[in-house]
């Protein structure tokens, strides 16, 4: 795709202009052509980075040693170089792509701004002092440091007014002279010395000013970008990509059923109490109580069950047995509901193999209305109701407070992760939650002492024959083919690739 070009001033190479410093306010959009695959890769990598920032921001003190160390590792893993000698193109382009995806709603904008500001804070603090000053001047933040003489004259005032600055360190550190209206936060909290319309800000506090500026610019830029969305949406190549990104889930694909047949219907009640995330636990409970779920609930819960390993036959049996206990008779079930279940498994309609919903999808799309039970309880339940649910599930009062605090800060997935830690008695979850099926797998891992889910019913015996893929594809009889497939399914080391081959062959 092509980003709109801009007129070049004074023959300055735009790349040099844009990437002359390790950090930028992202004032200029990218000027070059990129392929759609690069577009997608950059966007997904930045999204992963922002999600890491969100998680770390809640688990660690921001800018603490551990926080910085983990973030630096993530930078390396995602190949996001930004130091002076590295290319900064990916950082720049990926930021602008996510702007397009995350300007669409108030919730998305708020989330994006928060993570970008945290990322910026980390990177600004990581710069050497000389580069910080350079950055300020490049971005028309013409704050100058005061001279040594002026520092000596104002020594007492600076020590008394500036938080965490002692007489010894005043001499060693730079103070910026800034118009007071640019530092209202610091003035309001009385953290700086104010004289004749200027405040004197110690080096470590200048970041507050820069962050405020960055936040304001980004917020305005997102509002402007939102206005141009109709034009972007008219591009049929971009629209699906952008829509996907704003609900993006960047982890494992749980449509590949690794555990098909490993769950028995009798296990579901006990699993729902032990290993289902709250969203699925409440759906299961409501299904058992009212013997019915509306469409949104059937989709969310049905796909989750498919993801944990229910086969189509089991799913039909599960839903039928529950629905006919209520107001739906078997005949009506077969006519009105069985189609939807087969559809979910790709056996009807366009035969798409539907993927279980990720947390982002549950949180951001199709909010529940009166009578619905789908959605994410951390996002969609009233806090008082959520508190009652957590009390009912025997979460401790201090745990409930921690969860509600995270919900208040709109960290819904982290609230869910905290619920996981509290209900599994682990001090810190070793994963970052993105998907209800991931919750289930991690829960089974913890409860099984590190092992994946075990089937309580009979497990098919390992065949003594060691069939290979070519053996199977050369078979002519469909019946024997299916039988061997079943055996091979259990035998296969790599079930995912096996499943793929199977689908291709069918
Ligand atoms: S955060 Fe995800 S797994 Fe947890 S309750 Fe919400 S949607 Fe379900």
UniProtKB/TrEMBL annotation:
Output the Gene Ontology terms for molecular function.
Answer: 4 iron, 4 sulfur cluster binding; DNA binding; metal ion binding
Keyword Iron among record annotations:
yes
The alphabetized UniProt keywords are: 4Fe-4S, DNA replication, DNA-binding, Iron, Iron-sulfur, Metal-binding, Primosome
| Record note on cofactor | Binds 1 [4Fe-4S] cluster.
GO CC term, one of those recorded: alpha DNA polymerase:primase complex
CDD domains listed in its UniProt record = PriL_PriS_Eukaryotic
**Function comment:** Regulatory subunit of the DNA primase complex and component of the DNA polymerase alpha complex (also known as the alpha DNA polymerase-primase complex) which play an essential role in the initiation of DNA synthesis. The primase subunit of the polymerase alpha complex initiates DNA synthesis by oligomerising short RNA primers on both leading and lagging strands.
* Family recorded in the similarity comment: Belongs to the eukaryotic-type primase large subunit family.
Q: What is this protein called?
A: DNA primase large subunit
Q: Which organism is it from?
A: Dicentrarchus labrax (European seabass)
